[in-house]
Amino acid sequence: MTENRPRIVVTRKIAEPALAVLREVGDVWFPEPDRALSPGELHTAIAGADAIVSTLHDRVDAAFADAAGPQVKVIATVAVGYDNADVAALTDRGIVFTNTPGVLTDATADLAFGLLLVVTRRLGEGERLLRARTPWSFNLGFMLGSGLQGKTLGIVGLGQIGQAVARRALAFGMDIAYSGRRRVPGEVENALQARYLPFEELLHTADVLSLHCPLTPETRHLIDATALASMKPSAFLINTTRGPVVDEAALADALADGVIAGAGLDVFEKEPEVHPRLLELDNVALAPHLGSATVETRTAMAMLAARNVAAVLTGGDPLTPVKG
Ligand code: GLV
């Protein structure tokens, strides 16, 4: 170990090939065994770091940057969403901040579509029935779900992941409608046969509404009691973006009262907590934030974060910077 090698702190253990990339450019520290550090432990751990690889549950704000110290050059989050970061505060301090877009698009779209199938075809409910050893017999009216063909998938936020979900839905014979901060280029709309609708209209048109917008002050509780009341009673809600985009208590009420038919959720307002009433409902499919959780994708995300760190520490340009 030489004196002047950069110090790289990795807040949660990442895939070995990415650690190898980091070890080529500095001395790497991460908590062993892997665990979530408390905010106090985190601030102590990052003190003096030249580079930090963080995750979506680290609060990467001015206090975080100050705890690291003025020498910190780059913070690379292993996630595409960065609502946990105050990018302006980092930029003000001259810190490069990077995320991992692109590499998790398909895995997240697969998971969104998986939840859609689980809830519309009542697969979770069916599995619970079998595991409870409940007597059952096949009959023509048993556990009927909702078909997808000819139904409208409403996508909120037709970015990379929203588009990947749309491609899957097209293959299932669904129609695509979307809303978002802005319209996508005409060629994208044409390729996906996607029609743009104002948000209000999307709410009452969609048979399945899938959320793919980032969490921002504007999208926090975008799906509240009023929005849920605008949806069809036969509609399903899928959330694989960030929990706070949905008012979880209002959703639990809507699901219990038949305001909408069902929901598939991979993300929650106060992770790792899940609203207790959601756990009681049969018409909701739940996953513990698994959107990008494949070996291949998590490795690719970690590699991208590590390459961002390596680029900055060796005087190059980051690959996927987020601008403040
Ligand atoms: C996961 O939630 C991510 O933002 O990458």
Can you tell me about this structure?
Helices cover 37% and strands 14% of the residues. It has helices at residues 16-25, 39-46, 62-68, 87-92, 105-120, 123-131, 160-171, 186-192, 199-205, 225-230, 248-256, 276-280, 295-313; strands at residues 7-10, 27-29, 51-54, 74-77, 96-98, 152-156, 175-179, 194-196, 208-211, 236-239, 262-265, 284-286. Strand 1, helix 1 and strand 2 (27-29) form a beta-alpha-beta unit. The chain is α/β, with parallel strands linked by helices. The protein has 2 domains: 7-102 and 295-313, NAD(P)-binding Rossmann-like Domain (Rossmann fold); 105-286, 3-Layer(aba) Sandwich (Rossmann fold), CATH 3.40.50. Bound molecules: glyoxylic acid (GLV). Glyoxylic acid binds at residues 56, 79-81, 104, 291-292. Residues 56, 79-81, 104, 291-292 line the site of glyoxylic acid (GLV).
The class by helix and strand makeup works out as alpha/beta
| CATH class (first level) name of the largest domain | Alpha Beta
Distinct ligand kinds = glyoxylic acid
CATH architecture of the largest domain: 3-Layer(aba) Sandwich
Counted by DSSP, the helix tally is 13
Q: What is the general shape?
A: globular
- Overall domain count: 2
Order of helices and strands: EHEHEHEHEHHEHEHEHEHEHEHEH
Radius of gyration: 22 Å
Distance between the amino and carboxyl termini: 35 Å
Determine the CATH superfamily of the largest domain. NAD(P)-binding Rossmann-like Domain
Q: Order of strands in the sheet with the most strands?
A: 8-7-6-9-10-11-12
CATH topology tier name of the largest domain: Rossmann fold
Q: What's the overall average pLDDT, rounded? A: 97
The major sheet is characterized as: 7 strands, parallel
Topology, number of strands? 12
How much beta, percentage-wise? Answer: 5-15%
Helicity range = 25-40%
Low-confidence stretches: none
